[in-house]
Structures are given as structure tokens and as C-alpha cells.
Amino acid sequence: MSYAFRRRFWAGFLILAFFGLWEVLCIALQVSDLVLPRPSQIMATLVDRFDVLWPHILQTLWTTMVGFLLGVTVGLLIGACIGTSRIAYDTAYPLLIGFSSIPKVAVVPIFVLWFGSGSVPAILTALAMCFFPIVVNIATGLATTEPELEDVLKSLGASKLDILWNVGLPRTMPFFFASLKIAATFAFVGSVLSETVASNRGIGNVMMTASSNFDVPLVFAGLFILAVLGVLLYAAFSLIEMRVAGWANRRNDLTTTA
């Protein structure tokens, strides 16, 4: 039996054990579902109300992915500028740090004033939440290019754009995919945050409505859906990373004899 198989087996077993312990403790301690519903109650809620939840799932997924893709585009452009220009670094970095320090819940009302309620504030909030990690990691990746290598390439006639495209950007791939995994979860946070304030659709709105009606199992069902979507997106980027930047990862699937 390989080491990788055993590792995945025990990981799955421990995850199931966590939910099993949750179920047993709720029953043994007679915890009310208004405080903490059991996993079985959450799954029953998901099954019973899936037809109602499905349009809201699609809405949240759509706004999150649009905001995420825009955030990736903006983050790549700004990160490339900051990573290749000292003047851009000195000018933009303080502004970006200041913007990232602003609680995004305070930005949502501004988006509502500008664009009204609906999908646009959710998309912009997702963008605002996820682009900063990409900027930082792209700029960091470009900064790892050795000055000696740049000097050699310049002596061979390579332009600054050639160095960026053929050396700088490939070296940022491990940093880029690391930032994508973080940014994807931040994008979901941004969309749901906006939906709780400025939308009548989406998982965030469902959770807010359920909370006001003391429907705690439905609130936890919404949390479970968001967790599953985040894990699936994280796993997708991990697979792409192994294809594109597998050279930067240590080999951890060592096999051993059973």
C-alpha cells in the first residue's frame, strides 16, 4: 500500500470522524438545533430544500467567479507593474496596503450607492477581496529574479519585456497559484458579504433570511455549501498547479511497500 494512499485514507477517515463526533456530542449533550444543529440535520435540510437553494448557489457561484476573474486580471497587471518598476512599487504599495486594510463591509454600501443592489456590488466586493494577495505574490515572484541573470539577458540583447515574459512570469507561477488558492476563498467571502447586505439572491441572502427566522440548520447548510464550493475550487487550482508548475513542488507521493 503506497504512502499517498494511506495518507489520503487517514485524512478522509479523520474528516468523517470529526463529523461523527459532532453528531454524537450534540445527541449526548442534548444540544438544541437553535444553537448547533447536527450534521444529519444539516444534510437533511440540504436534501429537502435543494431545489430552492440551487438558484442561489448558481447566483453566488457566478458573482464569485466573475469577481475572481476580474480580481486575477487586475492583480496580475498591478503585480507585474510593481514587480518590475521601483517607482510603481513606492507609489502603489502604500495605496494598496491602505485599501486592503479597509474592512470590506464598509465598502459594500458605497458600491450599493454607485451601482444599486444586486450582482454588481457582489462582483466588486469579490474583486476587492481577492486581488491583493495576487498583487503581493506576483510582485514577490518577480522580485526573486536574480539581477545577474537579468544582466546576462540584457547583454544578449533581450528587452525588459522579453525578460519579463520568458523569465520573470514563469518564475512567478508557484507564487501565482499559491495566491489563487487564497484569493478564491476571499472571493467567496466578498460575494456572500455583499449578498447579506445588498441582494435578494445568493447564499448570503439565504443565510441572512434563515438567521432572522431562527432557521439555524439552513444557516449551517449555507455554510456547508460555501465550504464545499471553496474546497472544489481549491482542488481545481491545485490540479492545474501540478500541471503548470509541478517542477516547483517537492515530490511527496513516495511509495513504500506494504
UniProtKB/TrEMBL annotation:
<feature type="domain" description="ABC transmembrane type-1">
    <location>
        <begin position="57"/>
        <end position="241"/>
    </location>
</feature>
<dbReference type="Pfam" id="PF00528">
    <property type="entry name" value="BPD_transp_1"/>
</dbReference>
<feature type="transmembrane region" description="Helical">
    <location>
        <begin position="175"/>
        <end position="198"/>
    </location>
</feature>
<keyword id="KW-0812">Transmembrane</keyword>
<feature type="transmembrane region" description="Helical">
    <location>
        <begin position="95"/>
        <end position="116"/>
    </location>
</feature>
<dbReference type="InterPro" id="IPR000515">
    <property type="entry name" value="MetI-like"/>
</dbReference>
<keyword id="KW-0472">Membrane</keyword>
<keyword id="KW-0813">Transport</keyword>
<feature type="transmembrane region" description="Helical">
    <location>
        <begin position="218"/>
        <end position="240"/>
    </location>
</feature>
<comment type="similarity">
    <text>Belongs to the binding-protein-dependent transport system permease family.</text>
</comment>
<dbReference type="InterPro" id="IPR035906">
    <property type="entry name" value="MetI-like_sf"/>
</dbReference>
<protein>
    <submittedName>
        <fullName>ABC transporter permease</fullName>
    </submittedName>
</protein>
<keyword id="KW-1003">Cell membrane</keyword>
<feature type="transmembrane region" description="Helical">
    <location>
        <begin position="61"/>
        <end position="83"/>
    </location>
</feature>
<feature type="transmembrane region" description="Helical">
    <location>
        <begin position="122"/>
        <end position="144"/>
    </location>
</feature>
<keyword id="KW-1133">Transmembrane helix</keyword>
